[in-house]
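User: structure tokens for this one?
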Amino acid sequence: MDFSETAERISQKVTSHGHAVEKTAIETKLRRLVEEFGVPLAEAERTVTNEMAREFSISGLQSGGPGEAKTLDALVPGEWVTVECKVVALTAPPSPSISQTGIAADQTAAVRFVVWSRANAPALKEGNWYRFESAVVDQYRGSVNLKVHSGTTIKEVPGKGTIKPVLSPIAALRPGIASVRGKVVQEWEATHDRILQSGLIADETGSVRFVTWKEEGRERLNPGTVYTVFYATVDEFNGRLSLTLNTATVVPEEGDIEVSRGDASFEGAFVHLAPGSGLIKRCPVEGCNRVLSRQNYCPVHEIQPNFQYDLRIKGWLDNGEETREVLIPRAGTESLVGMTLEQARELAENTPLGMDEVFLRFRDALLGRYLSCSGREIDGRLLVSGCTRLRFQPERLADLLNRAGGSA
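Assistant:
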């Protein structure tokens, strides 16, 4: 009987708590218990592990043995556990030191897992059930992870029935793995060449940023479409949640849902109209909708002569104490500037300045005007769903002038 694997598991548990221990000594203890006293290997592992815990005064090291499996919803960072779960997704490893990454689930929860290359573990297959003995539970960015190392034993086991993921309201999301049903309400311009798509997905309770990284087989989502997203990764960064879809199964749904319009609001003077405002051109490829350059170039689909026109306002409001970036779509833009999409298009096609003429008309209509805008606030930007003009407020003019003078 080979005792080295079991001895390695116990050794790693002890050394992870900062204590040096000889693996050969552990192996000797195991061999004696099994060969001289007829103790089953699982019981011998439990006995030696508990002995090490007492010797080094390590709390929490005592082991119930590999025979006692825990459900995924009961995992606690710092534990060494045995679990039985289904691999529901595999993703590209981020570094050579990792052989496999993905999502594992049982009937209670889902967690991310990492298999280290040095573990020499068998290749896991998506859709199969496995028993992980002596895996390590840790925490990354607020979510529980399962780590497979050289002391972990992996065995394929018969399926434990159908797993039905529980859909979470977007407002209730927490770091970890989650399934949601929502509508794509915004698509954003990519800020990194590795991003396939990013934007905003919302349901009746709230909204959250989503991102899909470029990866073989990954497809873009269509704005305005409802999707059920199973096993997405929820990360927290700088106090904001983000939904990563590379681990997820995404299913388009029929029909529509009434999404939350957001509860953020801001009032102030419109002090800056940013480039990219006014009459813009969008890529006509289904599911893209990116803003084109002046040469009708889409960063994904290249030259698009059959572009589609749109209107929007990008700018800044200032209330004398703070500023807020706002992004106003076509409906709100037409109402604020008193110009329809068709009128803007005719103006651009029949004046020497073209689309720049529309931008200048927008600037004249907006600069210095007091506005009240409401919508969703994401990463410091207000995505406006409603906007109205306010009457002139002399007391705010003094605040703005004082602020301008203080920054000169």
